[in-house]
Design goal:
The strands form six sheets. Strands 5, 17, 18, 19 and 20 form a five-stranded antiparallel beta sheet that branches. Strands 7, 12, 13, 14 and 15 form a five-stranded antiparallel beta sheet that branches. This protein has four domains: 181 residues, no CATH class; 138 residues, Chitinase A, domain 3; 103 residues, Roll (Chitinase A, domain 3), CATH 3.10.50.40; 102 residues, Roll (Chitinase A, domain 3). By secondary structure, the chain is α+β, with helices and mostly antiparallel strands. The chain is built from 22 helices and 21 strands. Helices cover 48% and strands 19% of the residues. InterPro entries: PPIase_dom_sf, PPIase_PpiC, PpiD_chaperone, Trigger_fact/SurA_dom_sf. This is Periplasmic chaperone PpiD. Its main location: membrane. Keywords: Cell inner membrane, Cell membrane, Chaperone, Isomerase, Membrane, Rotamase, Transmembrane, Transmembrane helix.
Length: 601
């Protein structure tokens, strides 16, 4: 069965994966003791999730993702998927409870109707169910009788999703979009204005401001809540990088020699490309690169390919990607440009299994010795270099110098000062590391000394804005008297006032030369042609405007678009209402999360 499933297109894995997770959430939730002992990973309102169940869900989701992407999954993506599996469990339990309270159910006839008439996007996108690139409903319905497709699991997916859709519709049923809102949205994106303006920008005064110690202290005290910090941790670590060795390089050259020998005996180049090439595209093109000009490839590759004769096999040619064996098949000129048709076999020099095992053994040995003999002593005995992360917060999600690594983050915030970790794989398998919790910084306020540069910048910016405001006010009488904007700018002896005329812009657009300033755009659309604004006070500076032109409301275009606009606003609003409802439901729920206990990251 699994062999057949692996031969199916990627959407089957994706759908089956989701359905499988849903079935575990809704059907297995009460069975938590199959492995004996307390193996509860989590609990939502009394519904428990065992370690075995979580692992089954995660394994299936990861397999579905591999099928969907047709490649290996990075460490970071793997962590994201496991987090999604946990969230699906929480959401599934809470939704099931609410659906039972509201007596939401789904009939067999509803499922049949939805499967027959509303295929999922994954089906619509599958080339096997398309005619001339367009989804073919007849092909889809014919596929319903295909016994190789796991329709039972897909039915389970619909059985899960239809009640969910009913729940979402029920929760968000009160959402409405008024005709005025539809019209406002159309105007915001389609009606355009053009203004001339005067600008007195705050940054013109930054060099004229200073910040005394009293200024800094006063600002810091008034805005102290902006400088709160959570508990911080600092890690020391020893890094064991995994780099190719001379042995790994020699192994690649041994493979190159084998390939060239087999080619000399008449073996097919494309067959060997499928067997050896590490170019990801080789599985589809068998190494065939088609015709290309000199600028299409990296220089060493192009130089070698264009220097060779048709029929020649050359290499190894070294590029930043690795070593290439190149077969030049043809040459031609197209519109005066010389082109070559070639195939290649790419071999990358990467750490081999022996190199990986050696570095892993070194890292494990260091972790064991450091726990037995002490961190400093073991570092000194092996002459290792110790790096430190510096202090960081858990909510940042990033371990400085390491990146996103949930396992390392969990060690940092679950450990006591001086604790030493086991070996961790980091950087998607490119290195190993062993960590020690170096220090703990309690939650509180960042001291002024730590945020002094930030505070100084804020103080100077605030003072510069005040100077800009005072400078702009000097021209208020001229503006109100009707004096030409350009003449006002030319009369400014300080050469601070900027005069310009915008292009036509929509309310929602960024204005060239001004930026995305809501106050600027909003004022323009409140003016009538020829009308002059009061001073517009914005964080960027002060502005005066005169409306030159505003495009007319296009009622014909509005009538064509208003239903699409209504649906777009309605769907976004319904989603927001439902999400808010879910967050409140989740907040009230009793949720126990034991994932860290089981090293689930």
């Amino acid at each position: 069965m699994m062999t057949k499933m692996r031969q199916m297109s990627k959407w089957i894995f994706y759908i089956v994966g989701i359905a499988f997770i849903a079935l575990i959430v809704f059907e297995w939730g009460a069975d938590v003791n199959r492995g004996g002992g307390d193996t509860t990973v989590g609990e939502v309102n009394g519904t428990k999730l065992s370690l075995q169940e979580f692992n089954d869900m995660a394994r299936n989701a990861l397999e579905s993702e591999r099928a969907r992407t047709k490649g290996e999954i990075s460490e970071q993506r793997s962590q994201q998927i496991k987090e999604q599996v946990w969230e699906q469990f929480v959401r599934g339990v809470l939704f099931k409870e609410e659906m039972e309270k509201l007596h939401i159910a789904v009939s067999d006839s509803e499922i049949v109707y939805q499967i027959m008439n509303h295929p999922l996007n994954e089906f619509k996108q599958d080339p096997n169910l398309q005619t001339n690139g367009v989804f073919d409903m007849n092909k889809y319905r014919a596929a319903l009788s295909n016994p190789q497709i796991p329709w039972a699991q897909i039915e389970a997916y619909y059985r899960d999703q239809i009640p969910y859709q009913k729940l979402q519709n029920l929760i968000s049923s009160s959402v409405r979009v008024s005709p005025a809102e539809i019209k406002d949205e159309f105007i915001r994106k389609n009606v355009k204005a053009k203004v001339e303006y005067l600008a007195v920008l705050s940054n013109r005064f930054r060099g004229k401001t200073t910040a005394s110690e009293d200024d800094l202290q006063d600002w810091y005290e008034k805005h102290k809540d902006e400088y709160k910090r959570d508990e911080n941790r600092d890690l020391a670590y020893v890094l064991f990088e995994v780099k190719p060795t001379a042995r790994d390089t020699q192994n690649v050259f041994n493979d190159i020699a084998k390939i060239k020998e087999r080619l000399s005996l008449g073996e097919d180049f494309s067959t060997l490309a499928l067997e050896y090439s590490e170019d990801p595209s080789a599985s589809q093109n068998k190494g065939d690169l088609g015709y290309f000009d000199r600028n299409s490839m990296v220089k060493p590759f192009s130089d070698a390919a264009f220097a060779a004769k048709p029929g020649e096999i050359i290499g190894p040619i070294k590029t930043r990607y690795g070593y290439h064996i190149i077969k030049v098949e043809d040459k031609k000129k197209e519109n005066g440009v010389e082109k070559v048709k070639a195939s290649h076999i790419l071999l990358k020099i990467v750490p081999g299994p022996t190199t990986l095992a050696e570095q892993e053994d070194r890292a494990r040995a260091f972790a064991d010795d450091a726990k037995s003999n002490g961190w400093d002593e073991t570092v000194a005995a092996n002459n290792y270099t110790v790096k430190t992360t510096g202090f960081f917060e858990e909510k940042s999600g990033i371990v400085p110098g390491i990146g996103r690594n949930a396992a390392v983050m969990a060690f940092a915030f679950m450990s006591e000062k001086g604790d030493i970790s086991t070996m961790y794989t980091i950087n998607d398998g490119k290195a190993y590391a062993v960590f020690m919790l170096n220090d703990i910084l309690p939650a509180g306020y960042k001291p002024l000394s730590e945020v002094k540069a930030l505070v100084e910048n804020e103080v100077k910016f605030d003072k510069a804005r005040a100077l800009a405001r005072a400078y702009a006010l000097k021209f208020e009488d001229d503006v109100k008297s009707g004096k030409a904007f350009k003449a006002i700018a030319e009369s400014d002896t300080g050469k601070i006032v900027k005069y310009d005329v915008t292009r036509m812009f929509a309310l929602s657009e960024s204005v060239p030369g001004v930026g995305r300033i809501p106050e600027f755009n909003g004022t323009a659309f409140r003016l009538k042609p020829g009308e002059v604004s009061d001073m517009i006070d914005t964080p960027s500076g002060m502005f005066y405007q005169k409306l030159i032109e505003k495009s007319a409301f296009d009622s014909s275009a509005f009538n064509d678009q208003k239903e699409l606009i209504r649906l777009r606003i309605l769907n976004a609003r319904r989603a927001a209402v439902f999400q808010k409802w879910y967050e409140e439901l989740k907040e009230k729920a009793s949720i126990v999360d034991n994932r860290k206990k089981f090293n689930i990251f």
